Amino acid sequence: MTLPLINDQRFLDNNYSKNHLPKAEYDNCTFKSCNFSDSYISNIIFIECTFIDCNFSMVKSKNTVFNNVSFDNCKLLGFPFHECNALLMAFQFKTCQLNLASFFNLKIRETTFDNCRLEKTDFSNSDLTASIFRNCDLSHTIFDNSTIEKVDFRTSRNVFINPENNKIKQASFSKENALGLLKYFDIKIT
Question: How far is CA 142 from CA 50, 62, 162, 170, in A?
Answer without folding.
Answer: 27, 22, 10, 19
